[in-house]
Amino acid sequence: MNADSIQTAAVIGAGTMGHGVAQVLAMAGITTRLFDINQAGIDNGLSKIAANLAKGVARGKVTAEDEAAANARLSGTTDMQAAIAGVDVVIEAVPEIMDLKKKIFTELGDSLDANVLLATNTSSLPIAEIASAARFPERVTGMHFFNPVHIMKLVEVVKTDVSSNEAIATSMDLARRFGKDPILVKDSPGFASSRLGLVIGLEAMRMFESGVASAEDIDKAMVLGYGFPMGPLKLTDLVGLDVRLSIAEYLSGEIGAHFAPPQILRDMVERGDLGKKSGQGFYDWSE
């Protein structure tokens, strides 16, 4: 298999990352089926893709012809077997729950041949453990996308000790087919991006918590002083504070106490201030 031969794909999970992955697949000319456990999730995901494409047309980034073609390549279903039937690649993008991901990869392994590429979009969970649930673990890689998927250029391709050279090469080339710029990293806690980004994000939270500066000024320091495209606290709001908390708890156990979540992060998640998706985080997103 190679990336250019991929014609049909399934994306498991229609949430923030899943519908974004489905969009870039469809825009790359690949017929894509979006699976979720309920129809409301599918409808919401397809609606957001349509809105993203329409916005791209309005801004001159996408042609009307490409918009229509991408929408035509997309469909959704609540039937897992229907979603994965005859596909060349499956990209899983469900919540960061190891048991859930392993359950899905067991089902994929029971249903798909060895020539199908399987990828998991996880920001920190060990790929090898996820792959161990599949019948052909050598066909499994990590493909860690970034939000918003249709805009962010980076994809982390994560290789395990048993990932085949073909699976790795196909994952890298598929990311390039999406117009992304992939990096290849070893399966290790936090990979490259989450590990580095989280250290900065957690320290920014501690600074805000202790009153060093406002969220806006902490972010401005990194944008204007270090050339970051976005400050660490605003990025945390976009990623989701609950997601950041989950990653921090995992990495603090795997790597060390410098990844321990600050109390402000725990408190905000407990009261439901999860960032942009809830309308309130370090910034007010209600409007």
Overall description:
The chain is an alpha/beta fold. It folds into two domains: 3-186, Rossmann fold; 194-270, N-(1-d-carboxylethyl)-l-norvaline Dehydrogenase, domain 2. Helix content is 48%, strand content 14%. It has twelve helices and eight strands. An eight-stranded mixed sheet has the order 3-2-1-4-5-6-7-8, with helices on both faces. Helix 5 (98-111) links the parallel strand 4 and strand 5 (117-120). The protein is globular and about 55 Å long.
Write the layout of secondary structure elements.
Elements lengths: L7 E5 L3 H12 L3 E5 L3 H20 L5 H10 E4 L2 H5 L4 E4 L5 H14 L5 E4 L6 H5 L8 E5 L9 E6 L5 H13 L3 E6 L6 H17 L5 H12 L5 H8 L1 H14 L8 H8 L17
Parallel strand pairs: 1-2, 1-4, 2-3, 4-5, 5-6, 7-8
Antiparallel strand pairs: 6-7
Helix pairs in contact: 1-2, 2-3, 8-10, 8-11
